[in-house]
Specification:
Oligomer: heterodimer
Largest sheet of chain B: 8 strands, mixed
Structural class of chain A: alpha+beta
Number of helices of chain B: 7
Low-confidence stretches of chain B: 218-231
Low-confidence stretches of chain A: none
Helix content of chain A: 25-40%
Radius of gyration of chain A: 35 Å
Number of domains of chain A: 3
Helix content of chain B: 25-40%
Number of strands of chain A: 19
CATH topology of the largest domain in chain A: Alpha-Beta Plaits
Shape of chain A: elongated
């Protein structure tokens, strides 16, 4: 077992700041009954003299454009859960420990990701992409890993027998057993290593068995089971923007952050997104919602970002957005991508699918379709629009007579003059009649005599006469 | 300079040689009509260039002109995209021409800008064998963009317009399609390599135009039946 502890020390600040491209002065405050005190501020605010612990009023006099957000523990917990779901791609055993810490059992998956160093870099970079600063530490027991990650320079201990020595560097204030911490300070014991040298029975009698149990858990002498985190059934993440924005680029950046989370979640669950629902929150208007439907399930952020870009390009916002929410409401099992040695047909099909999705994201789902022919004698029923990605390889030729390349959406009534149909002048009949009498079974019966006709300007037309009481002439097609 | 080198220079499409069209190795797809192929610089529809077709009026064989090429492209599993056609392309007739319907892609959009954008995307994707687009009001800049996209893609790009021909255009090939007594007349307005050959007449509908039919009897005995013979 090798536990990796991930600590997000600035979670309360970064969950607000990560939606913005450029860092603007921002601070998190906790309001008490009388005044609001800053808990944490970012580098831009720090540069103008703002420090944590200040009151909001004095911070604002130092930095007029400082954005102050109230601390929201529920939102922090949600953000941490999203990071936990993202982290499930590295190991099946993820546990949320405390307000800002995650524990990942990486002993089993270390080799798969290319060794400890590479894994740590991957996780650090990944968290950076999500917009979080992370500290990592590892130890053979979860509690020791948590202790190490809280140190100013986190330790990486791989073997159980090295653990004992390493505890000398851990301050006694890391202990959860709080009454013991104060007592140890009074004894003049500042680190856990020194505490280990004390006689166990005396320590237990004076400070309680709880302290010894905690140290034993950290040393692996007692079991330390952790509740494992299960990724949610559906991905749903909200990103609040530090300042309302209506710019497509700023929204895209936030989308990029959300996609990074989504990719981790989908990789962890072995799924691909099929339907993505975006909700943009506004201050005083109803939310703007839009959906991206994918032809083929995907979890490639670059591709999904292209689709989002096209959709945002045609989107009209009633007001700047304050938050962006992404929910993946339909997903499908998706195998890991395999790389092919030769540029094969698969890659071409994928490229085609991506193109279709891009076009649909911009023009709308109904703007693109394919064509199919059907074995029906009625001309208007002999074709149908089909989804463009349908790869039914039936190329049925069902053409009993001459058929025009253009069909009018609706047959057009032709004027008659001296019993001769007119279309820019009298029509001359060239071919026909071809009688089509069909469709009595589905309430749309036709009984028509079809002719090929030529108008005085030499266009070739496909016309028919109804076989009914009023026997009108109709234009239905054009031989193009 | 050796004679072969001179030939090579003269045969590039950029060299204007009076009334003779240089025979150039522009990658092209045969149109399927031998008389027309003779007039086109590469012996067919130029790939990687924009072709403008001015149609005098619909229904004179302007789409039939593309059908042999379309059949060939879709047979090779390349897409054929139609953007904003004026009517519904009729699937059974296309299938009868040999077009594989599963490689057809229809696009419809209200705004010409979106249509031009889609055309550009389709061309640049490299999946399309040919893109057919119907656009009336088109800025010169858009036309150049389409020509540029076609050049980069190597696909056939056909732009259909009504007969109001503009004097100049960025398109590499410009054709005018008219009709004369049952035959389709194609005149070349512009081609690479220069020259203005006489128009070519094609018989696109063959037997269809030479047949005759009798006007059916009108309803009611009072009216006299009227016969109309075809030319």
């Amino acid at each position: 077992m090798l536990w990796l502890a991930v600590r997000l020390p600035y979670l309360m600040l970064e969950q607000h700041a990560r939606g913005a491209v450029t860092a603007t002065p921002l601070a998190v405050a906790e309001s008490t009954a009388l005044t609001a005190r800053l808990l944490l501020c970012n580098a831009a605010a720090h540069a103008s003299g703002v420090r944590s612990g200040m009151t909001a009023a004095s911070a604002l006099t130092l930095c007029a454009n400082l954005g102050i957000v109230n601390r929201n523990p529920a939102a922090e917990r949600q953000a941490l859960e999203c990071v936990a779901a993202w982290a499930c791609q590295f190991t099946a055993q993820v546990s949320i420990a405390g307000e800002t810490e995650l524990l990942l059992e990486t002993g089993g998956s270390m080799r798969f990701f290319g060794g400890l160093e590479v894994l740590h870099t991957t996780i650090e970079r990944g968290l950076q992409e999500l917009g979080y600063t992370a500290r990592l530490a590892c130890a053979p027991t979860p509690l020791a890993a948590q202790w190490f990650v809280r140190m100013p320079t986190p330790l990486h201990i791989l073997r159980l027998d090295e653990l004992h020595g390493a505890l000398e560097h851990v301050s006694a204030s890391s202990l959860q057993h709080l009454p013991a911490t104060a007592a140890l300070e009074r004894f003049g014991i500042h680190n856990i290593g020194a505490c280990l040298k004390l006689p166990r029975d005396g320590l237990a009698r004076r400070l309680g068995q709880g302290l010894l149990d905690e140290i034993d858990r950290a040393l692996g002498r007692l079991p330390d089971p952790r509740p494992l985190f299960t990724p949610p059934v559906q991905f749903d993440s909200t990103l609040t923007l530090p300042a309302p924005t209506a710019q497509a680029e700023a929204l895209l950046f936030a989308g990029h952050r959300l996609y990074a989370e989504l990719r981790g979640y989908l990789t962890a669950t072995g799924q691909g997104a099929q339907r993505l629902e975006f909700t943009l929150h506004h201050e005083r208007r109803p939310h703007t919602r839009f959906t991206l439907n994918l032809v083929a399930a995907s979890r490639d952020p670059a591709h999904l970002l292209v689709l989002l870009r096209e959709r945002l390009a045609v989107l009209k916002l009633p007001q700047p957005a304050t938050a962006i929410r992404l929910a993946c409401t339909q997903q499908q099992p998706l195998d890991a991508e395999s790389h092919s040695f030769l540029p094969d047909a698969q890659a071409q099909v994928e490229a085609a699918t991506r193109l279709l999705e891009k076009l649909r994201a911009r023009l709308g789902d109904t703007a693109i379709h394919g064509l199919r022919s059907f074995a029906d004698h009625r001309p208007e029923h002999a074709w149908r629009a089909s989804p463009p990605d349908e790869r039914a390889a039936t190329n049925m030729t069902f053409a009993p007579g001459e058929r025009p390349l253009w069909l009018l959406p609706q047959p057009q009534v032709l004027r008659e003059h001296d019993a001769v149909p007119q279309y820019d002048g009298p029509l001359t009949l060239l071919g026909g009649p071809e009688r089509i009498e069909s469709g009595w079974w589905d309430e749309q019966p036709v009984a028509r005599d079809y002719f090929v006709a030529r108008c005085p300007q030499y266009s070739l037309l496909w016309i028919y006469r109804e076989r009914s009481a009023n026997a009108r002439w109709f234009l239905q097609g054009i031989f193009s | 300079m050796p004679a072969t080198a001179l030939d090579a220079v003269l045969n590039t499409p950029n060299v204007w040689r009076g009334r003779n069209c240089a025979t150039v190795a522009t990658p092209s797809l045969p149109t399927g009509y031998a008389e027309l192929d003779l007039l086109l610089p590469g012996g067919g529809w130029p790939a990687g260039a924009l072709t403008e077709i001015y149609v005098e009026r619909p229904g004179i064989g302007e789409l039939q002109l593309l059908m042999p090429a379309a059949a060939r492209l879709t047979r090779d599993a390349l897409w054929l995209a139609m953007i904003g056609p004026p009517y519904v392309p009729y699937a059974p007739a296309l299938a009868a021409c040999g077009v594989h319907l599963q490689y057809l892609l229809m696009l419809r959009s209200q705004s010409p800008d979106e249509q031009a954008w889609a055309c550009e995307q389709l061309l640049l994707s490299g999946n399309c064998g040919a893109v057919l687009i119907w656009l009336e009001h088109l800025q010169e800049r858009t036309l150049r963009r389409l020509q540029h996209a076609a050049e980069r893609s190597g696909s056939i790009a056909i732009l259909y317009r009504s007969r109001r021909a503009q004097p100049f255009s960025a398109a590499a090939l410009r054709l005018h399609v008219g009709r004369n007594d049952g035959r389709t007349v194609i005149s070349i307005l512009k081609r690479r390599g220069g020259g203005a050959p006489p128009p070519v007449q094609l018989d696109l509908y063959g037997s269809l135009t030479r047949r005759s039919a009798t006007m059916p009897l009108s309803r009611g005995p009072a009216e006299t039946p009227r016969l109309q013979a075809a030319h």
